Amino acid sequence: MLNLIKNELIKIFKRKNIYILFAIAILVMISFNLYEKYRNVDEDIKTQYEKAYTQDNLYLENYEILTNKEKYEDIVERIELEKYAIENNIKYNILVNTESKNTQLPIDARILLMRVFNNFDIIIVFIIIYLTSTIISEEFSSGTIKNLLIKPHKRISILSSKIITSTLVTLITVIIIAIFQYILGGLLFGFDSYNLEAIRYNHITQQIDTMSLSNYMILMFFSKIPMYLILTIVSLLLGTITSNMAINILFSLGLYLISSEGILLNNISKYLFIYNWDISKYLFGGMSGIGVIQPILISSFTALFIIITLIYIFKNKDIVNE
Amino acid sequence: MEILKCDNLKKQVKGKIIVENISFSIDKGDVVGLIGPNGAGKTTIIKLILGLIKITEGKVSIKGYDIEKDFIKAIEKVGAIVETPDLYMYLSGYDNLKITANNYKNITKERINEVIKLVGLENRIKDKVSTYSLGMRQRLGIAEAIINSPELLILDEPTNGLDVDGIIEIRNLITKLSKQGIAILISSHNLTEIDNLCNRIIAIKNGKIITDDKIERFKSFSSEDTYILELNHIDNLEQIMQDYKFEKIEGNKIRVYITKVEISKVMQKLIENNYQVYSVQEEKLTTEQAFRKKVGENKID
């Protein structure tokens, strides 16, 4: 098994494309950070919070008659955080999930790190889906899977090595993006802000929660990982079924976009795994305070179901002419 | 010693029978040619042997191990190229071999270098496979197939895309391997190659074996032999030869379909009718001619 994993890693890390992909990701991150660094800001933070607080309260009072409404809980969160910032004379931006309206609050490295998964989710998702496609769809479409399947390994061992490699690659991608943002943010905005607390509004307790930035990032990491891992195994399953890298990438990306934009989300579809795999949305009482148990259970059962299906199909697939 | 045994193999897909009643065995040192027209089922048989597709009925044993029940033990001494050598194009030849070697125990660097030298790729082994010619990829595929010192080697069109020198090299390599006692199964459309390499032929048509025979017996298959007679002239031959099947070929030569016993009668009749017989030659069929006779007019391409 170790040799199989070693082979998979050789195959991935000897690809030029992976380095081009990461280089593009880094360029995008640098551009985004530079934009945040050099955009216009208003240094009178307290006045901005006060104005935003007044405006958001008015917005909430007239919520029922508004068209193109934001999510109610986002507005509530903003109001509470703005109130907290005013009361505690906070001199920095503390809004993570949403922005105060008509403000030009300065950004710091801490906020950018806290928002790293929101800002660069699509990049992480694309890299993961692409790499996972090469691990399986490309092997089928190019025919190299034949060579692998006539070696002295059980099919389950071969598949396990691919699942383990995909998981490793997913984890490494997420960690690299987060570390890079940490370094880039620190270099552009200063590392001092990393000593500040992470502040979030808890919709369940209706109170402000504070924690160290490192604890917050660990929490975010573990709450985003289920989505990335489920996307990984969905991609492996699609790759095994279709043997077509393009279809695999498009379909997997499509699933992610439907989920992130809440397309087709209603009272029935809300139990689908794509609306439950991003546990971070359920933290701090998000998603109407459902809590994290439901999404964790749905995600776990989904992952198990997909893995069982993947094993069955891979073990029984006839290798015919592609 | 029997290396491979196929017992009544059948493959059916959605009600359609692809191959059936496939039974044969291959012993150590055999070089067996698997021939048949396109779509006959040759590649299906190879894939059934290697476990790439599920067996509907029947059994495959390699060195006594069932390919379905004891896959690892059955396959560990098998090397194969199926359809085309499937290589990682973005990796070097050496990396491709290294990845293959990692799938087996105890394949040393020395063994990798040995197979590189055997297939003549020393000068290009560090280059990406995408820069290789078709012949070089074929050679690398063969290197991958023999790296584990297999006891059974299965080659699907091994000389495909090779130039004359390449074909000769591969032919010599296969001959050398067979002398080492490796059992070799070659599927090929190039019946000249089969002629040169194999000591046995299995001919497939419409998913069934129609012949499994030593190559010499395959080529002289019928109860009738063929003789080429050169005469002084071939005028009015139809009346004299009405009891025999014959055809005119080039010049004053005819091909006569008769047994050895009848040849003297034919010659006597011709001489009595004032023909002069300059020469009599038994015509040996090539594998291709024998194949066409057995399989019928299906095109071999």
Provide a quick synopsis of the model.
The complex is a heterodimer of chains A (322) and B (301). Chain A has 322 residues and is mainly alpha-helical.
Tell me what you see in this structure:
- The complex is a heterodimer of chains A (322) and B (301).
- The longest helix of chain A is centred in the middle third of the chain and has 35 residues, at 155-189.
- Chain A has two domains: 2-38 and 115-197 and 212-316, no CATH class; 42-106, no CATH class.
- The mean pLDDT of chain A is 90.
- Chain A has helices at 2-13, 16-38, 45-61, 72-87, 109-114, 116-135, 137-142, 144-149, 155-189, 213-242, 245-261, 286-289, 293-316, and strands at residues 198-202, 207-211.
- Chain A contains 13 helices and two strands, in the order H-H-H-H-H-H-H-H-H-E-E-H-H-H-H.
- In chain A, helix 6 runs parallel beside helix 10 (213-242).
- Chain B has 301 residues and is α/β, with parallel strands linked by helices.
- In chain B, a hairpin with a 2-residue loop joins strand 1 (2-13) and strand 2.
- Chain B is elongated, with a radius of gyration of 24 Å.
- Classes of the chains: A mainly alpha (322), B alpha/beta (301).
- The A-B interface holds A 3-4, 6-7, 10-11, 14-16, 142-154, 316, 318-321 and B 13, 43, 47, 50-54, 71-73, 75-76, 78, 80, 82-84, 86-91, 95, 98-100, 102-104, 144.
Please mark out the parts of chain B with pLDDT under 50 across 5 or more consecutive residues, or reply none.
Answer: 297-301
Q: Structural class of the secondary structure composition of chain A? A: mainly alpha
Number of extended strands of chain A: 2
Determine the number of helices of chain A (DSSP H or I, runs of at least 4 residues).
13
Summarize the biggest pleated sheet of chain A.
2 strands, antiparallel
Helix content of chain B: 25-40%
Write down the overall mean pLDDT of chain B.
87
Please trace the helix and strand order of chain B, writing H or E for each element: EEEHEEHEHHHEHEHEEHEHEEHEH
User: Could you give me the name of the CATH homologous superfamily of the largest domain in chain B?
Assistant: P-loop containing nucleotide triphosphate hydrolases
